[in-house]
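Researcher: Re-running this chain for the archive, since the previous output was lost when a drive failed. Same request as before.
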Amino acid sequence: MPTGVEVLSSIEKTLTQLRRGTQEVDQEIQAATRQQVEIRQEQAQQFRDLARLMLDEKQMVPFSEAMEQARRKADELLARRHDKLAVLERQLDDVVDRQNVLEKERQAAQDKIAEAARALDNCEAAAQAKLAQQPAYQQQLQKARDADGIAKHSEEKASHVGTDFTERSKPYENDRLFMYLWKRKYNTAQYQRFPLISWLDSWVAHLCRYHESRVNYAAIVEIPQRLKAHAEKSRDKARREYAILEELEKQATDAEGAPALRKKLEQAQAVGDQIDDRIQAEEERYKGIMEQRNKFAGGEDDDFQQSIEVLVQQLKQEPIPALMRRAELTPTPEDNLIVRRLAELERSHEQAAQALQGAKQLHARHLDRLQQLEQVRRDFKRSRYDDIHSLFPDGRLIQVLLDNFLRGMTTSNELWGTLRSQHRYRRVSADPTFGTGGFGGLGGGSVWSFPFPPMGGGGRGGGGFFPIPGGFSFPTSPGGGGGGGGGGGGFASGEDFRTAGGF
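Model: Regenerated structure tokens:
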């Protein structure tokens, strides 16, 4: 059952494999591009050799000079291109070096975060142990539990009666004569009496048996209101008892030094978050340089295009077509060999172009997957899944998904969804369900520091609580989706979470 740190390490290893694969494809692109240039240069040399055989000296000199001039121009363009590519290579190396340094800094920061989290966890565990032995705390805990139970029972009863009221009131509300008299407050002190209208209302009351129905309907209306008011009073009392209990816990944790330890943890997290921001900035730089480098590697830059164009245009000039026709008509074996070689070179150029196109598409997919997995890693960290309390029960499933993602068989959404569903909190020392932790966040939240909500743009905080089977409560993420994830399941199975009187 891997921890959050171990799963994060697996994600980072997959990122390393993706970067390595991207660089390998990049090398394939550069090889195919170099092959295209070499083919064009050899074609030019073959045509010079063919001209030497087929043309007299007067024709040969200007032809050779033009071909040599085109070759020199292409070489100049390629040399300038090489210098630009070298600059990009150095920039890429610098980014990779900075990423490696930042990853080491992040690991050191994560060690400090884990150390601070353990210290705070041990502090809260010590406070819980002392509270468990205090009769006053136990009495207040029981009072809070009893008040909470009464409030829940009152709320359930009010809700049930409210539903029952809706059904039982329909016959009365569907009776237009009855409702006419009810709205006029007939037979009450608020009823406005006018001789003729009063006589008619009396006649209507006799028709609809108003006096008997009014008593029943008044009870149906009044009982839910009274129950609701009682439930609200019960809940207010439960909140007051809970607040007293929470204050006792706060005093106990403060006495153990929790505020200073909590601040230290927050500071350590802030350092980690700052490093993560710098890592993300370097990832964006890496992406930008790789896109430029990919453009150069694929021969899409201006210098490369011009160098190829210079050679191609020269190869299209006279007397090359005439040379080809003359070589085909002569029985000389040497010129026939050159013609066959030229045909082979053209086929090789087409194959190199196809290989280059396929490598470009593969390179684009690698870059896309790399950016997606980097986003998953950012979400993982922002959700605090690398905390010491995090566990992932099915580590084999996660590794299979990472391998499949590397091969393009799984999407980042599927990977992130699995990480969220697999995530569990584990107990280290302190019990998150102790005392106020077992009330599901009644009155504003438990004193205990975990499990905690994911970072919402910086630091912890925010979020509400949602119940899970067994009475435990977990903080929810203040946000969702692409920027930060959250949620998670319950505690890891098999863990023991006993409180001073379980909830």
